[in-house]
Amino acid sequence: MIVEVLAGKTESFHELIRPHERSxxxxxxxxxxxxxxxxxxxxxxxxxxxxxxxxxxxxxxFSTWLIAIVLNEARARLRRKQPALTDSIDDTTEGSVxxxxxxxWREIPxxxxxxxxxxxxxxxxxxxxxxxxxEVFVLREIEERNVQETAEILGITIASxxxxxxxxxxxxxxxxxxQLAGAIxxxxxxxxxx
Amino acid sequence: xVLNCRHVWDYISGYLDNTLDAQTRADxxxxxxxxxxCSAVLDSxxxxxxxxxxxxxxxxxxxxxxxxxxxxxxxxxxxxxxNE
Lengths: 194, 84
Hints:
CATH topology of chain B: Arc Repressor Mutant, subunit A
Largest sheet of chain A: none
Number of domains of chain A: 2
Radius of gyration of chain A: 19 Å
Number of strands of chain B: 0
Mean pLDDT of chain A: 87
Number of helices of chain B: 4
CATH class of chain B: Mainly Alpha
Structural class of chain A: mainly alpha
Structural class of chain B: mainly alpha
Number of strands of chain A: 0
Shape of chain B: elongated
Largest interface: A-B, 61 and 45 residues
Number of helices of chain A: 10
Oligomer: heterodimer
Helix content of chain A: 55-70%
CATH class of the largest domain in chain A: Mainly Alpha
Mean pLDDT of chain B: 92
């Protein structure tokens, strides 16, 4: 399809990007936190991809290339809003995140996501992650990219991807475990059909 | 090797991703077998990861796809893709 677009059959680009619409938008949203701006950034990213399609190299996956474009677009917008923004994180220093220490955990089923307040709790916790951790978390857990791809997209080492992902997970557990346990009492989790 | 809770917390991601070596994994499991707190940390982390990855957490805005393709059509009319 890429060859078709470059040969002048530009309408094929619409079909080419359809499978990637959601992931490009989510990447923008996870950085920008604003639906309208994320949508605009996603549109810009697809237009840039279209205009620069000849630069795409088939050694990498098209989806990886698209995600890198939207990531740059969203980062540029963030920097315009917050010029002092930095995502420098020291991945080498010790500094474990201490998780929330509960004595037991009753599983919270996915059906609870039907409740707006639960979705809001999760979105807020993700938003609260430092940018460098959030990028890795979204790529690995939400976009389901592997460690190698995530490192490639972000231009960091595999060791940094693993470290940031671990810290992001622990930060989310620390914030969300008590909140979710409080929002959904164990009795209801154990007998969700009552 | 006998692990304390802090060690186990450092290994939670490796344990979930199944990237620990066999000996470390066995040490972590030995600790988990008798530590309620670390078992709860592991279970809650696993549970939270499932919930966060669910499509319902982030929904696409209504009409997103239509607006995207309309803007793309406009951009295509303005300029073809670069060719070298």
